[in-house]
Automatic annotation (TrEMBL):
Localization of this protein: Cell membrane
Keywords on record: Cell membrane, Membrane, Transmembrane, Transmembrane helix
Topology relative to the membrane: Multi-pass membrane protein
Coiled coil: none
Lineage: superkingdom: Bacteria
This protein's name: EamA family transporter
Family recorded in the similarity comment: Belongs to the EamA transporter family.
Amino acid sequence: MKNWTFPVAVFLGGACFGVLSTFVKLAYEQGFELSEVTGSQFLVGTILIWLLVLFTKKEKISIKRFILIALGGIPMGLTGIFYYQSLQTLDASLAIIFLFQFVWIGTLLEYVIDQKKPSKQKLIAIGIILIGSIFSAGVLSFQFTKISLIGMVWGLIAACSFSAFAYVSGTVGKELPPIQRSATFTIGGLIITFLIFPPVFLFDPNTVSAIAPFGLFLGLFGVTLPPLFFSIGMPYVGAGLGTILSSSELPVALCMSLVFLDEQFQLTQWIGVCIVIAGIIYGNKPHSIRDSNKSQEEMKTG
């Protein structure tokens, strides 16, 4: 693959996450509960990606190795649970701002675990993106006394979990083909979801048929596609740059909430979206990718 395909893959993975909050909100409006939304999402998404595995090249791995890689999908499952929990008490356009803190958490995680000091360019890009996120989420015009504290906490926990998954996507199971690797991640996400929320809704045919459209959409964009895109791109761009590219989810989430939830946006919010996009472009300048690739090679040979 050409170098540009790797950052594009991560960018698309983040964009997929951006569409989720709107449809989770719509599911809540239809009376569905968190357990039903997350359960149907991971069940359908896991089935879809394993169907793809049947028609692609696979590598043989030991049961021990399979379990280890599957455990890497646990943060993905937890991210959905934590984020959707925050959406129960926060507007979609506000919940995304707390999840969005993964932009700097991911770089911090990479520094703590790999001792990889972020470049000046990454730090500037993160600063630009965070400033843009403040404007785009309309935080400056909100009455902070009306913001749910528990919703904020769940959103920040989701950001930590998302950062952990971004890191795992770039480090665990890199010897496997992307589809097989991402499918193995989904097993871990499915198991942790069903452990926290036993899928009792599956025994009610009416609930299953009603939640099916949401499960299909959320499963595709929340479980099948993101780990696949991250498996393709993260090993080459690294968690630090990867979290910058994943910030594509913010403008996507805001645009989706505008169209489908009829949330009102101010001019300053659109300016914020433009600032975020500028930060992504700045953080993804060509020499940044070369530096990231160089770091990946050093990790492999070091």
